[in-house]
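Give me structure tokens for this 472-residue protein.
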Amino acid sequence: MDTTLTNDTSSESTNTGFILFITIVATIGGFLFGFDSGVINGTVDGLQTAFNSESVGTGFNVSSMLLGCAVGAFFAGRLADQYGRKSLLLVAAIFFLVSAWGSGVATNSVEFVLYRIIGGLAVGAASVMAPAYIAEVSPAKYRGMLASIQQIAIIGGLFTAFLSNYFLADIASGSTQKLWLDFEAWRWMFWMELVPASLFFIMLLFIPESPRFLVVKQKTGAASSVLSKLYGQQAQHKLTEIEASLSDDHKPQLKDLIDKSSGKLKSIVWIGIGLAALQQLVGINVVFYYGAVLWQAVGFSESDALLINVISGAISIAACIVALAVIDKVGRKPLLKWGSIGMTVTLAVVAIAFLNAEQSVDGKLSLNEWGPIALIAANLYVFCFNFSWGPVMWVMLGEMFPNQIRGSGLAVSGLVQWSTNFLITWSFPMLLAGIGLSGAYGLYALFSLLSIVFVIRYVYETRGVELEDMKG
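Here you go.
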């Protein structure tokens, strides 16, 4: 990577190593985002047993974190404009620590939900701040690739959570069984997060604040110093560009999202809202949050279901690596379009497979000969999502808004993304009980079909465009 960057004439003085270090540190937040989202997958049985909850209650216990995510994403964007990107990430790291410990020690649903919401605040903040921070320190030519590392970190966190859950449940002979120090395995699943959360907090102390935030706060000297470390001789030119891209009469405000001539939200904000909502409406987090429940519902054992999650996590990482390799070559829009097409087809196949599931006398479902087809289609769906909408949506939200409205645009888009995530996750147990797996996956297939139309008609390409040249 270094050789490629230093051979580019516009980036010959770029401090590639330092930018990569900053990117890796910021993406630990993405890893925790993934871990905190995925760890719940293996704990559903434990939560039902410990808190005596049914489908609606379980759905809320699982999705409660997402309420915090919505609030965290919205306020992080605005607070980051006031206190800085790095400062918000440090607060998020502390919240990750509190949530990981508290979720494991919770003795009732109320207590558990409280700690999960705290974790949600951290996830929401990290989800919007990490890609924005990476975008604000990266050269335009390689911004997509560097920002895509965030999605690899998210999937890496999910994969690690799935793997941790699998081994802990295996050692204890079940997620509800006692493990070390006489605590159930599902509690240890949450406590595993304390390790990466501690690392995140410590490493954040060694990275600088975003130079674009420093310019907004009129700390020109500090901004120039950071830009010199990032871009060397190009620092002064970049500083001038950033200053020119900001409004002279006021600092960034939420009302900047309104078009003064029409009094309506700017079109770029609607595109951000559409990207954020559709990424969740295709149902990806049902696979991540309820994967173990889903596969057990069609006849797999808990151990096999958790192993399938591990396989899906590995496939997700592979897909993200593919996206990382091509996003700055083929662009954002083509990846979104072909990913949507792939998801529509594979979700339809999964829905058909579940439609043909047979119900036994005891009420359990069995896929029989449709089992391999469902598994292959589901994992192809996971692949299609993670080489397209998974990384590209976050890359685009981090870069598509002009400097003046980036924080506010991320706040609104993040709020929509996590609110939609909550709706999909909370509703799944009820959809499962009402219209069944086939109906639920058919619904997600319809949203995937809608996403094809949305991308073709409304999404524009941002590949290679400097942040200072983004238009609202």
